[in-house]
């Protein structure tokens, strides 16, 4: 087990270094941050002085190793545009993103699981076919189209929910939440729905596939032969046996939701990490861009490592397969 954990940690370190290196290579072609920070009347001497203060005059490998060394200690540098500590800026935005992802995940489960069960046990019904068709539309539409459509219908036409922003927030120490205020709860509905639509489709299709497989199992046939009510068979026996893949997939998708929430946050002007990243790209704020990608990659790596180690604990054969 120790060798398994060490190998997973080594893989995690390699992935983080690879992501950071690729990010630095890509950011060299984004643009020159000096052009964004100085006006057109700035002299070449002023440009060279700013480039030297930012460390951009050093070779690429020196910049990369310096960033990795500082990032390992939690120091991602200073924002070129805002002249503030990058980690502090991300820490301010993280609660908004995490709150949005949490609500979107909750919506995807309470909607996707029942839809998956219904489409499995009522395969030939018209409403199951309708759910299947709707899921195809949901998985095909881009996030920004869904977001704009929700704003048009529920904000512009009906006026039920705010079109942008996070609403009023409540400070809980270093954490901020909008779920404790009425405007905050109303503001999170549309972005959470937009972000959860793709996840709902994944959960529904996974539950449906698992339910169909479980319903063909021998113990289900035996339960029917004993005269156990259909509701008990479907929801007590079959559903419980197909939830483990759903839980695993949901845990893995949390990292994806955090990473891809930037489109939803931009459409709804949600003050999270994704919107901060888009603004950083606009102004070529390399420290923020690099820190964002590193943190998102770290979330993916940690979630993958937790799932792998959990599987290794549950099934010892996986540990033997790694040797």
Automatic annotation (TrEMBL):
Pfam families assigned to the protein according to its UniProt record, in alphabetical order = BPD_transp_1 (PF00528), BPD_transp_1_N (PF19300)
Q: Does the keyword Transferase apply?
A: no
Q: What is this protein called?
A: ABC transporter permease
Q: Which family does it belong to?
A: Belongs to the binding-protein-dependent transport system permease family.
Please provide, in alphabetical order, the Gene Ontology terms of the cellular component aspect for this entry. plasma membrane
Name the domain of life. Answer: Bacteria
Transmembrane segments annotated in the record for this chain: 12-30, 100-121, 133-160, 188-207, 242-268, 288-314
Give the record's keywords alphabetically: Cell membrane, Membrane, Transmembrane, Transmembrane helix, Transport
Q: In what way does this protein cross or attach to the membrane?
A: Multi-pass membrane protein
Where's it found, cell-wise? Cell membrane
- Identify the main location: membrane
Source organism per entry reads Neptunicoccus cionae
> Which Gene Ontology BP terms does the record give?
transmembrane transport
The ABC transmembrane type-1 domain extends over 94-307
The protein's matches in SUPFAM superfamilies, at most eight in alphabetical order, are given as: MetI-like
